[in-house]
Structures are given as C-alpha cells and as structure tokens.
Amino acid sequence: MLLLGACAADSAADSQCIAARERFQQMWPGAARLTAPEYAGVQPSDAPAEMVSGVFGSALQFNWIPDRGARQRCYDSTMRSFGFRSYVPFEVIDSWLTPPGRRPRG
Question: Is the pTM here over 0.85, yes or no?
Fold first, then answer.
C-alpha cells in the first residue's frame, strides 16, 4: 500500500497521520478477513469505502491526533488516496472516536 506519502502539510500532524496509516496497514488484513471474509487479501482500494472508513477510524483511535482539523485532513486525504470519491463522512467516524483519557475502563 502506498499510503504514507499523502499526509497533511503540517509536520506534527504529518507524523501522527503517518502513525495512523501505519497502524491501518497493520490492521487491514485481519480486519478485512474478520469483517467480510470475501475481502481477505483484497487491497483497501478494492474494498467497500464503508469498510475501509471504519478500519481507518479504528487506526485513528489508536493513534490519536488531538487537533480535530488535522484528524479530518488525515482521514479525508487517506480515503482519497484509495481513490474513493464517496465515503463515510468524517463527522460520523469522529463521533465514534473517544479521546485518550476519556475511554471507559474495562
């Protein structure tokens, strides 16, 4: 996956976005296999945008970008890098995320 090159312009957000994208690359094969076995081994650009959005949202949860605008730029640029013209809006994905320190203890 050639995902790491298309990050946002500011360097702090860049490194956080790169970390989220690296996490996504680690998560994708297993998440695809578990979510929809027919997508096991399929590149994200060939999977449904909704599925890719959800997995990348999980990667953002693990690699939190504190600035909401930078988080949105990272999400949108990542989804566009896969060639998606239509995908789950950032506002929906962001509403599922919980900032560090506010996560319920389990």
Answer: no
List, for residues 5-36, the tens digit of each pLDDT value. 444 445 567 899 999 999 999 999 999 999 89
Q: Scan for tokens 């896969």, then name that residue.
A: 82
Backbone CA torsion sign across 81, 85, 12, 61? negative
Count of Cβ atoms closer than 10 Å to residue 97 Cβ: 15
Tokens of 97: 């995320």
Residues counted in the chain: 106
Q: How far is CA 25 from CA 19, 68, 69, in A?
A: 10, 22, 22
Q: 75, 83, 61, 87: which is closest to 13 by C-alpha?
A: 75
Residue 62 CA, distance from chain mean position = 10
Residue 53 DSSP SS3: helix
